[in-house]
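Entry 12.
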Amino acid sequence: MTDHAALLSVAREAVAKATGIIRSMTSFSVAAKGDRDMVTDVDLAVEDAVREFLARETPGIGILGEERGHEGDKDLWWALDPVDGTANFARGIPLCGVSLGLVDGLKSTVAAISLPFLDVTYTAVEGQGAYAGEERLEASKATELSDAIVSVGDFAVGEDAEAKNRVRMALLGELGGRVQRIRFLGSAAIDLAWVADGKLDASVILSNQPWDTMAGVLLVREAGGLVVDTDGGDHTVRSAATIAVGAGLRDEIVAAMARAAG
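Predicted 3D structure (tokens):
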């Protein structure tokens, strides 16, 4: 049986180490890694340090990192984004985070997200609630779109970006005249952590890279929110998108997504 309490302790220490590196590297280089995509040497330094730490502390568990790929077990593995929100970080915008989730089969069971420049760490274990530090989180209870602040994930880049972004534009049209505000934060880790924390009422991320989403998905669920795919079905690591929402707005957000997808 997996000792989730012990693994949460490992995850906390891992993101704390990552946070220390991010805060200490005050100068860094930025390189292109694709169409309008980038990596800094901070991303690489953090991922390498966290990989080394996790390999030592949890040798039987695999790891998928955004920058270095998947190594080891593919049934039980850590999903790591060393700097989620690299574009923000590279510009000195403090909205970025370290995201680490333990994926067991299709779902995550342990999560830790550190926001290095906002001085908060979010954690969760399946069945035990979600926390910001020692404070238990509760997702939004909103039931009206007119009361809702909704974040939307970044626009697509790379292959088929134009077609994918037509859906995003349609979604903005669906929500823009109905919700209280739309926000683009530039970090899936923050989007999901803030849905769990009730700061956002929903977040629509039209992609599902596990390093971006799997930690935050568990936070939302453990805070009483819902996370679904574009069709409204239960979100898993194989989902196409990550739609996180307080339970009272699920149907309206899913319906708006369906209309946008056409």
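Annotation: The mean pLDDT is 95. The CA atoms of residues 60 and 73 lie 7 Å apart.
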